[in-house]
Amino acid sequence: SLVARMTLKAGKITSLAESIRAIADMEDPISHTLKKTEVAKDLVFEKMYCPLGVLLIIFESRPDALVQIAALAIRSGNGLLLKGGKEAMRSNTILHKVITSVIPDGVGKRLIGLVKSKDEIADLLKLDDVIDLVIPRGSNRLVSQIKAATKIPVLGHADGICHVYIDKSADMDMAKRIVLDAKVDYPAACNAMETLLVHKDLNKTEGLDDLLMELAKEGVVIYGGPVAHDTLKVPKVDSFHHEYSSMACTLEFVDDIQSAIDHINRYGSAHTDCIITTDKKSADTFLQQVDSAAVFHNASTRFCDGTRFGLGAEVGI
């Protein structure tokens, strides 16, 4: 999964270039008046978009993240300090050089800085008079360490424990396509499915058996919760709060939609979760009660992406 995240092939570079163009073509987000109120005669109150200031973003071993974050910072008028994973240092150095070389002199080449040593982070986290926001992307441990070490506001992006719940009324052909895409398309991504929840009435049905056979055919290793372990004889999972980032997932059966919602809110990471159902009432209940950044009805978790949403790129979730 580490190698998959670090690899920059021609196709990925092309899509990165397209996402930068999409951001460049967007309406300038800065200096827009959101609200204008005359609070008293000739006393006008204006609410406007403005840059946050200087951002320190610490991200994992994904060099494409550097490109997206830098493009968003330039577009939104923010200064930026970037610290990527040491495994991608050479790629990050080249990408930083490419980006800063095209920043006009009037803006300044130093708008985006690249932090190369982990040792520098501790000193930077003390600069609460200079840095306005820290965004750590990575493990819960990293996010917790950053929060404990600074007075600067922290916006944490941690785990991607994404669920797909197949309701008893699901179209199983659709369910198969969605689950395969969510797990197999790019398992190292933070929006890949990690846990498959299935309504108990679908246990041992032809549709579910076909789906599990397709996953196995693709090379996906399935681990079971207590119920799935007993009924399907698959290896038992140690923890529901687990992000595989590989060709493996957890499977568990639940009694009803409320049990699925409770499971997701308890064990998930509030990233992206999906319900597959033909019952609109069940879908609405799921969409309203699952407390995640993105909640989908009949769509793969892989759709959770800034570019896919038409936003150009993303910094975190």
From TrEMBL:
Pathway: Amino-acid biosynthesis; L-proline biosynthesis; L-glutamate 5-semialdehyde from L-glutamate: step 2/2; Amino-acid biosynthesis; L-proline biosynthesis; L-glutamate 5-semialdehyde from L-glutamate: step 1/2. It comes from the Eukaryota. Keywords: Amino-acid biosynthesis, ATP-binding, Kinase, Multifunctional enzyme, NADP, Nucleotide-binding, Oxidoreductase, Proline biosynthesis, Transferase. One of its GO terms (biological process) is L-proline biosynthetic process. GO terms for molecular function: ATP binding; glutamate 5-kinase activity; glutamate-5-semialdehyde dehydrogenase activity. Residues 11-203 form the Aldehyde dehydrogenase domain. Pfam families: Aldedh (PF00171). InterPro entries: Ald_DH/histidinol_DH (IPR016161), Ald_DH_C (IPR016163), Ald_DH_N (IPR016162), Aldehyde_DH_dom (IPR015590), G-glutamylP_reductase_CS (IPR020593), GPR_dom (IPR000965). It catalyses: L-glutamate 5-semialdehyde + phosphate + NADP(+) = L-glutamyl 5-phosphate + NADPH + H(+); L-glutamate + ATP = L-glutamyl 5-phosphate + ADP. PANTHER family: DELTA-1-PYRROLINE-5-CARBOXYLATE SYNTHASE 2, GLUTAMATE SEMIALDEHYDE DEHYDROGENASE. In the C-terminal section; belongs to the gamma-glutamyl phosphate reductase family. NCBIfam families: PRK00197.1 (NF001221), proA (TIGR00407). This is Aldehyde dehydrogenase domain-containing protein. It comes from Pseudoroegneria libanotica. The lineage of its organism: Eukaryota, Viridiplantae, Streptophyta, Embryophyta, Tracheophyta.
